[in-house]
Amino acid sequence: MMYKGVIETYRKYLPVTENTPIITFFEGNTPLIFSRHLSDETKCQVYLKFEGANPTGSFKDRGMTLAISKAVEAKKKAVICASTGNTSASAAAYAAQAGLDCIVIIPEGKIALGKLAQALMHGAKVFEVAGNFDQALDLVRKLGEKYPVEIVNSINPYRIEGQKTGAFEICDQLQAVPDYHLIPVGNAGNITAYWKGYKEYYDRKQISKLPKMTGFQAKGAAPIVLGHIVEKPETIATAIRIGNPASWKQAEAAAADSGGSISIVTDEEIIAAYNLIASKTGVFCEPASAASVAGLLKRVKEGKIADGSLIVCILTGHGLKDPDTAVKNCTTKTVKLPCKLEAVVRELGY
Ligand code: F0G
After folding, report:
1. What is the distance between the alpha carbons of residues 134 and 123, in angstroms, rounded to a whole number?
2. Whose CA is nearest to atom 11 of ligand 1?
């Protein structure tokens, strides 16, 4: 049977009716990739859930299919979001299919080029503001209160509903429940959504245990770990450059209720993991995504994860979104040569 996207696949777990028009690019059903290298290195069984394989290249599509479908059902004409890039790319694409106007507010100069290109190509109105994501989200909240625009950030509950399907999918693909679910945390919607998904599957007797929700924030943007708002968040992982997450409390609850944790990884650890995943497993994710694997390596080193544990790391977005960061921070470099056979042969050492 042809795969029909997350709403059709998990319809009975989602707030849709026969009257809901389904706006979809057949998102979800992303690969769960066993990493031999990471498994050997950690003495665990490590799987990478590659959300970069979604139609717009990030996990946002799972929530956006529902948020946009519900906006159309409610006869909305325009949607709006603040974004570090991926939400805007996804919102713009789904809005284009639905024929809705899309307004995007992004922090100037802090969006990976691929993401900006997506929002522009899909015809969104893109406003670059001299502020960070948190300030952009404040603007969006105010605009949403006063004007006829539907907010499609993860403060829209349909976003969380759609994204919880990631948890269902992992359990269905593994035919088991991970001991640890590792995930980058930015605005904290995704950890909230996954925890909701696991709990619902548990309540509906689809699974018989729950994973430990284990989140990671970048060192310069770690408000939840520090316990206070970070006014000027900074990290190379621009997707999670957030100082005041909207789902802060829910993320804390997910970690606490599951016996998990939220902790810090440095930019250096993120970049090392980013290179490692691409070169040793063949999966190219974006820097923010690599926070989950950086966190895995760190927790294992600290002795916090027992040998043999079943691990799922969420790789939230595709590496091609941000080629600048890749080329700049890659451990492999190009070698410039004259266009001559001898030169190539000599360089190869044959
Ligand atoms: N990874 C990537 C690639 C992201 O784009 C984001 C968030 C996260 C992780 C963190 O997820 O916010 O649910 O905790 N990106 C948002 C955006 C903020 O605007 O694209 P979260």
Report:
1. 24
2. 186
